[in-house]
Design a protein that fits this description.
- The protein is an alpha+beta fold.
- It has 4 helices and 7 strands, in the order E-H-E-E-H-E-H-E-H-E-E.
- A hairpin with a 2-residue loop joins strand 2 and strand 3.
- The longest helix has 16 residues.
Length: 172
């Protein structure tokens, strides 16, 4: 399995994860998001086949968007002198696995690769958290991968805001 960053000249291969919105993003929007500097998309490929993908973009955990009880838990991760109104994050904007590879542990492996890659090479900027607006049906998957639920201050519809402390990757 190979991880590659989507480029403008990449010849898109067929992909079906069973979700029209996730399929549509990869086929119709990922290159536009890249060109517009909104998000980078990465593909997990096996030979000529896309077996999964994810995209990353900048984000933040903000006091105004999180319930007080959740914000207190986040603040405890920092010394008192470093309490801010928001903390830098990277958002996992899309995450999908081909129907052909469901229930084979690939999602867990992909999540491990994402966390390790972000911890080892954050690029030109630093961040503390990995965030996701998880489909409600995917919340158990993210919880198994160390994400915690956030209680948003306003209704989010069919997603659940979640976060992962990237420094917990370093814990034994």
């Amino acid at each position: 399995m190979e991880l590659i960053q989507l480029t403008s000249d990449y010849e898109m291969k067929p992909f079906d994860c069973g979700d029209a919105a996730l399929n549509g993003f990869l086929c119709n929007d990922a290159k536009l998001f890249m060109k517009s500097r909104l998000a980078k998309t990465y593909l997990f490929c096996e030979g000529d086949q896309i077996i999964g993908y994810f995209c990353l973009l900048n984000d933040k955990l903000s006091r105004q968007e999180v319930a007080n009880s959740d914000w207190r838990k986040i603040k405890k991760l920092f010394p008192h002198a470093k309490h801010f109104g928001s903390y830098p994050a990277v958002k996992l904007g899309r995450f999908a696995i081909s129907n052909l590879y469901h229930n084979q542990g690939l999602g867990k492996h992909m999540m491990f690769v994402i966390k390790q890659s972000l911890l080892q090479d954050p690029g030109y900027s630093q961040f503390r958290f990995l965030t996701v607006d998880a489909y409600l049906t995917a919340v158990p998957f993210y919880e198994r991968n160390g994400f915690k639920k956030l209680t948003p201050t306003k209704e989010q519809g069919d997603t659940q805001a979640m976060y992962f402390d990237i420094l917990s990757v370093l814990e034994p």
